[in-house]
Amino acid sequence: MTNSQPNGAEPAVTLPGVPKQGFDYSDDDRPLPDLPPLPADPRWRVAHLPFLSAVSAALVLCAASAGFFAGGAASALGAALGVLIVVVSYTMSTLVIAWADTVRPALLMPLALLTYVVKYTVLGVVLVYGISTDWTGKAALGWGVVAGVVVWTAVQAWWFTAIRRPK
Question: What is the pTM assigned to this prediction?
């Protein structure tokens, strides 16, 4: 008995009136689809991260200072944590999207959506827990998140429009 399947398994049995089940490799001689070529230098996708990291470090220090002067040590910690939450979140999204785009562009949408679902689930759990506490730095944490989002978005938009124009 000859086996026409590459993995050594027995061929699928077909019964009259029942559609064919499983994979039958013997009649599939279609060529694989052509994938688009990868870009010559994929580093441009993350070229803004060192500059944004430096701006974010300065923002963490500014937010902590403003929080300390506004409400003491707890507010300083809250403001700094708020900025750090945004920095980690945005950096993770950038790295996942850049990696997916260099490996296989078809993975871009599913991995980006999965990243956002994971991030917002974690953020939701943290917020539900944070609202129920009596910690005095939670208002400063919210303002730190707002400051982080505004500054990161503005600096990234400035970077891509003024500094790094796509060719």
Answer: 0.70
Q: Please check whether residue 112 is in contact with residue 89, taking contact to mean a CB–CB distance below 8 angstroms.
A: no
Over the stretch 3-25, which tens digit does the pLDDT of each residue have?
455 555 555 556 666 666 665 55
Which alpha helices (DSSP H) does the chain contain, by range? Answer: 49-71, 73-103, 108-131, 138-158
Contact 155, 148 (CB under 8 A): no
Q: What pLDDT does residue 7 have?
A: 58
pLDDT tens column, 39-98: 666 777 888 899 999 999 999 999 999 999 999 999 999 999 999 999 999 999 999 988
CA-angle at 92, arms to 142 and 102, nearest 5°: 150
Task: Give the Cα separation of 38 and 114 in Å (integer).
Answer: 23
The one-letter amino acid code at 153 reads: T
- Calpha distance 90→68 (Å, rounded): 25
Calpha distance 56→51 (Å, rounded): 9
DSSP H stretches of helix in 3-72: 49-71
Q: Which residues of 97-109 are buried (b: 16+ CB within 10 A; e: fewer)?
A: bbbbbbeeeebbe
Virtual CA dihedral for 36, 90, 159, 103, nearest 10 degrees?
-20
Question: What are the residue boundaries of the structural domains of the chain, listed by start?
Answer: 44-163
